[in-house]
Q: What sequence folds into this?
């Protein structure tokens, strides 16, 4: 398999996964207070939504690359 077919398959898989899950989330840790040896930190949960049009376009571009 050449690199274009691998890229096409990865785009199709990424597009399908984005349509199934709709996005992903991650935890961001920030330092709030640091007083000598005492440190307090806050963990914030961030959510990144992937639009439906982006998932569909990834699938379409992957299919076009796979055909050529």
A:
């Amino acid at each position: 398999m050449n690199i274009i077919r691998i890229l096409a398959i990865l785009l199709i898989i990424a597009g399908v996964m984005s349509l199934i899950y709709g996005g992903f989330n991650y935890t961001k840790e920030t330092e709030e207070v640091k007083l000598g040896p005492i440190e307090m930190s806050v963990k914030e949960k961030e959510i990144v939504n992937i639009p439906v049009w982006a998932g569909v376009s990834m699938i379409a571009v992957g299919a076009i690359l796979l055909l050529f």
